[in-house]
Design goal:
Blueprint lengths: L20 H8 L9 H8 L9 H15 L6 H30 L1 H12 L7 H17 L1 H13 L6 H48 L1
Length: 211
């Protein structure tokens, strides 16, 4: 006698999953054709980077741009726009890094200037004072004990503990102002290019659905 209390599990007993029209349309808009342009592949393989910049991080950037668009790239213009966005974003990252490096590069001149100001009372002529400040700066960077002693002397002369950084920032201001303009311009370009990329992709996909 056959036990019918537990019928065999087969696909006919499973409820069918309903696919929404939106999901169906999303599946239809993707295909197996590789639309990647040769110029885009060359751009990814040989990105315009400086010697100290990370090629792997740039590759991740190109992947992120494609994913952020949430659209499948197909036309040469769409790939061209991705190249432009990636280039602008790399420039943006470069400008921000340069701003930090710029202020760091001004720490040494700022320190020498601080030594000259605190030693003006010695009566040394300007050339000798400058040479002394240069030598003292060498010691400040190389010798932690001397650095601690010099910092106390600066504070005793009325300078705040962050006086070197403040002076380095002041010296950097003209170049920082230029970098800020470059950063603002890059940010604006990125937004404009991303809007254009997304609009082109959506318009093309709408036309493909209508066809």
């Amino acid at each position: 006698m056959t036990d019918t209390s537990n019928p065999p599990d087969n696909d006919s007993n499973k409820p069918t999953e309903e696919v929404s029209p939106e999901e169906s349309a999303d599946e239809e808009q993707y295909d197996d054709i590789d639309y990647t342009t040769a110029s885009y592949m060359d751009f990814v393989k040989n990105p315009p980077l400086l010697p100290n910049e990370d090629k792997g991080a740039f590759g991740q950037l190109t992947d992120d741009i494609e994913l952020r668009s949430s659209l499948e790239l197909k036309t040469p213009m769409e790939y061209f726009l991705v190249v432009q966005v990636c280039t602008k974003m790399q420039n943006l990252s470069r400008y921000e890094a340069m701003a930090l490096e710029l202020m760091q590069s001004q720490r040494r001149p700022a320190l020498e200037d601080l030594f000259m100001k605190t030693e003006e009372s010695t009566g040394l002529d300007p050339s000798a004072l400058k040479g002394m400040a240069f030598n003292n700066a060498n010691l400040w960077f190389a010798n932690p004990e001397y650095r601690a002693s010099a910092d106390k002397s600066f504070e005793a002369a009325g300078y705040r503990p962050n006086a070197i950084e403040v002076e380095a920032f002041r010296r950097s201001l003209p170049s920082l102002a230029l970098l800020e303009r470059l950063i603002a311009s890059a940010q604006k370009s990125i937004l404009t290019l991303m809007k254009e990329l997304e609009k082109r992709c959506r318009d093309r996909e709408a036309k493909e659905r209508d066809d």
